[in-house]
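Dear colleagues,

As part of the handover before I leave the project, I'm documenting each prediction I ran so the next person doesn't have to rerun anything. This entry is a single chain, and its sequence is reproduced below.
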Amino acid sequence: MLRVTSIGEFHTGSTFSSPSSSYGDDAEAMALAGLTTHQHAINSAGDLEQYLALWEQAHTLFNIGILRWRLDHVFNITIGQLDRLRTLGGSVAIQGIGSATGNATAQNLRQVVDHARAIGMNVSGGTDGGNFYVINPWVAIHFFVTGEAENGGSSGMPAGGEVTVYEALHMYTIGSAYDTFDDDKFGSLEVGKFADLAVLADNPFAIEQSGNLGPLRDVSSVLTIVDGDIVYSNGLVDCNGSSTLWYRKAAGQSCTLN
């Protein structure tokens, strides 16, 4: 399922990490048009400072807090910058590309997640572009929890910078639902929310407790339900002895997992 949720990584210029000369005008135009933006902010704290200053300027024209503007990657964001972003009603998203790119994108996730929680800021998880990273959240979750690079070496994440499985899952579920204005419908199993869900082949919390975190990379779905319909099954779904997938129109059938 593909959804367009925002203007993503907006840029017009020769460098992709610092704001272009026109970005201030662009940010104001997005704010006045009521558009959400998820902005690539990957390099130094100085680059983040420039984006924040321009967002603060746009905020004087329109309350961007209700638009849920988000800074992505934020490898070098400071506590003070998180506070300023929270004042604007913004949030951050963190991707697992550090496991592939190494020290250049090392990040103290623990510091970001702890401070965001303290100030009531949303943190979501992502995978970034599929042209240079795996679009598989479990690979990224493994990195968030272990700090290990995909080649088995060090990613450069500071010792103690890792997060727990629960925190990583929160980023990818309710955290990501917030970014698309769907946190009242998706992201957690609660009364009143949609029953979209995936039945996993392995329990990620049991993997964490075992101390052997390698299998986190390979967690997969046995059964995936979206909008009341089974959209994926690994073959273990049995509906009245047949392999027919269950749909809402056939809700009277009895389906079990073998």
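The beta strands are 7-8, 37-41, 70-73, 91-95, 123-126, 197-200, 221-226, 229-233, 237-239, 255-257. The longest helix spans residues 45-59.

All the best with the project,
I.
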